[in-house]
């Protein structure tokens, strides 16, 4: 179970770089820390988003393998085991762990010159760029994840941060609804279309309709989830999984040889 500082770090990742100190106070309240008195009036829209974000935090703490589809019909598989995260789609993998971050793409190599008339199509090779390890998602990393998938996908934490950003606008309007067993919050503001996020009872983002960190419209829909994840999910595609050491098996002695 994560402590209060870990929960605060997760909520900070949800809204980092997008909000004023007013919401920082609500983050502290969600984590059980005392909230300092503030001069500005409470923002009901931010309170509503904060309530949904608090449910998402519980899901981020759990081990899970989650499959989403996007508005473009792409499939993205999310593997999570706090603080490790991995996102896999067609030809792209983004992995974030305290030991390192990896952005891997399948790249088609240039065909080698051949004297034969029949030309073989070269098989794609995986190329990975490695970066420093991280414990929590930053705004720059959230955008990097979205960019890696062509702007069609965004991390669940970033989806909640998007709603919180809109809730800071002018003439804000909110709404609540249900999508299956998921609780949904919708937010709109002056000059901004309505965007919606839904979190299911397990604390997982079940649906998002809005704008990604790359500035593109998308819909994320949860297809399935399993409450487990393998360590191999956090290895880059170019790494070989560790194989357990084999215990030598002794052949049985032939019968009648014992004295």
From TrEMBL:
Q: Which domain of life is it from?
A: Bacteria
Annotated segments matching region Disordered: 228-259
Q: What is the protein name stated in its UniProt record?
A: Lipoprotein
Q: Which residues form the signal peptide?
A: 1-28
Report biased composition (Low complexity) as residue ranges.
Answer: 236-248
Which keywords does UniProt give here?
Signal
To which species is this protein native?
Dactylosporangium siamense
Decide whether keyword Signal is in the record. Answer: yes
Keyword Signal part of the UniProt annotation: yes
């Amino acid at each position: 179970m994560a402590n209060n500082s870990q929960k605060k770090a997760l909520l900070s990742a949800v809204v980092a770089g997008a909000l004023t100190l007013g919401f920082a106070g609500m983050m502290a309240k969600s984590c059980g820390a005392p909230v300092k008195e503030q001069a500005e009036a409470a923002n009901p829209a931010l309170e509503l988003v904060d309530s949904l974000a608090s449910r998402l935090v519980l899901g981020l703490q759990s081990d899970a393998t989650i499959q989403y589809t996007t508005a473009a019909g792409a499939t993205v598989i999310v593997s999570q085991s706090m603080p490790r995260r991995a996102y896999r789609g067609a030809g792209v993998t983004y992995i974030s762990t305290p030991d390192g971050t990896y952005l891997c793409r399948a790249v088609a190599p240039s065909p080698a010159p051949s004297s034969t008339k029949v030309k073989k199509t070269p098989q794609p090779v995986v190329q990975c760029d490695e970066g420093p390890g991280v414990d929590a998602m930053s705004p720059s990393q959230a955008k990097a994840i979205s960019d890696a998938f062509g702007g069609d996908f965004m991390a669940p934490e970033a989806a909640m941060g998007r709603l919180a950003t809109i809730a800071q606008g002018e003439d804000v309007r909110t709404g609540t609804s249900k999508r299956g067993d998921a609780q949904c919050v919708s937010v709109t503001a002056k000059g901004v279309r309505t965007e919606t996020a839904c979190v299911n009872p397990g604390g997982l983002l079940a649906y998002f309709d809005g704008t990604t960190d790359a500035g593109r419209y998308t819909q994320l829909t949860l297809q399935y989830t399993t409450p487990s994840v393998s360590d191999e999910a956090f290895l880059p595609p170019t790494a070989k999984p560790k194989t357990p050491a084999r215990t030598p098996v002794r052949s049985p002695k032939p019968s009648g040889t014992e004295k």
